[in-house]
Amino acid sequence: MAELSFFDKVADRAGVPEETARALTEATLRTLAERISGGEAAALADHVAHELRPSLALTAPEEPEVFGYDEFLRRVAERAQVGPRLAEQGAGAVLQTLHRVVGHREFREALAQLPTEIQALAEPVPHGP
After folding, report:
1. Are the C-beta atoms of 37 and 52 separated by less than 8 Å?
2. Whole-structure pTM over 0.85, yes or no?
């Protein structure tokens, strides 16, 4: 069986079609790159597939923009052209998938710059019985 792409994994996690997962992935990674330092964005970009790197390496300034959870999700929703709930669900799926791809240490270092609410998106939601 072929290995699932990053987009397939996000689609699976978020329960959306691959096209939507692709839009959510690009939107989340671009927004993340704006929110963390250029160095951290570049470090994450080193660990992802080539097709995802442009979203993270988007001439990220060394100094990150400072914005909170609501603005993070607003930007994701606007870029992916989805509603707020799907933006939250999708951003969580992207960050959780990114965590598995880049590894715990790199991921934690990058996310340390984020507010707790955004970091919490990366935590898998426990499924009920």
Report:
1. no
2. yes
